[in-house]
Amino acid sequence: MMRSLDAESVDLAFADPPFNLGKEYSSKINDALAEQDYLTWCQSWLDEMIRVLKPGGALFLWNIPKWNLPLGAYVGARLTFRHWIAVDIKYSLPIQSRLYPSHYSLLYFIKGSKPAIFHPDRLPVPCCRHCGGELRDYGGYKDKMNPLGVNMSDVWTDIPPVRHAKYKKRDANGLALKLMDRIVSLASDPGSVVLDPFGGSGTTFVAAELTGRRWIGSELHCDTILDRFSALEGDQEHLADIQANKNTLFTDADLKRRKKNGKPLSKDYRLLQSDGSCACPPDEDEQSDLFKAS
Ligand SMILES: C[S@@+](CC[C@H](N)C(=O)[O-])C[C@H]1O[C@@H](n2cnc3c(N)ncnc32)[C@H](O)[C@@H]1O
Predict the structure, then answer these.
(1) Is the minimum distance from the CB of 174 to ligand 1 under 6 angstroms?
(2) Does 217 contact ligand 1 (Cβ within 6 A)?
(3) With respect to CATH, is domain 2-120+158-230 assigned 3.40.50.150?
């Protein structure tokens, strides 16, 4: 499929391939290829993703660290490395004499030296799920914090595994809509072209479709994706919820929790007005101020 695409025609390319973990896919595809075969196979589709990427376009590669280490070196020799994002999700049981695997690797590259599109969301202050209180003390810097939220770091701790029956579209492997919305928002604009060669349950396509991007994808078994697209209301609702809880300093849920637990918010914080307006600071970076202060 990718060979049929024009060179330099895609703004954002994302891949979440099978991990070669010996799992059975319904396709009965042999997912336990020898390690080198797996890497060679990955390189063949990565070559195509790189070819079709526009100058300044972004390539994201999702995998376990074991594979993203060699694959990252391969892509890094062809594109410009931006970030290794650690996405904190536990995905296996603790293994004796090993550390507990608790993050997926999300590699982010761009073609050329400058990203054509880069607008990371800002995130709410991390708060206690029970009382709504801040998990860290911003001390005397509360008034310097951007009402739109804190800067995104390269460690993402707020991506849920897709477990909820309402949001889970298939038995295994579906990524969270929150993750795909974050990536699509960061590296594409409405009208941009988004490519995902391993569609799975279609999460990338849903995030792209519902935010006005154009998208191209492939999948060996498209039934789940077709089903999902035949009734997008649930995803639409879910996405609205995700979007209401980003680019804001505190989520409504946390503010409600605080109220319930008698923890009023410090008056020093500047919050978004109900009409969406805010007195945003110029271009200051409240987090680097915090680092300087500490
Ligand atoms: C890890 S899953 C992707 C899940 C997806 N990111 C989601 O959120 O639902 C990998 C998918 O790649 C598909 N796949 C494997 N080999 C493929 C190929 N050569 N071409 C297209 N899809 C393939 C599998 O059927 C599987 O659904």
Answers:
(1) yes
(2) no
(3) yes
Nearest-angstrom CA–CA distance, 284 and 271: 16
pTM of the model: 0.89
* Residue extents of the structural domains in the chain: 2-120+158-230
Ligand 1 center–CA 101 separation, angstroms: 22
How far, in Å, from the CA of 186 to the mean position of ligand 1? 23
pLDDT tens column, 29-38: 555 567 889 9
Query: Cβ(161)–Cβ(89) under 8 Å?
Result: yes
Q: Which residues, other chains included, contact 184 with Cβ-Cβ below 8 Å and sequence gap of 6+?
A: 12, 194, 204, 207, 208, 211, 213
* Residue predicted with more confidence, 13 or 170: 13
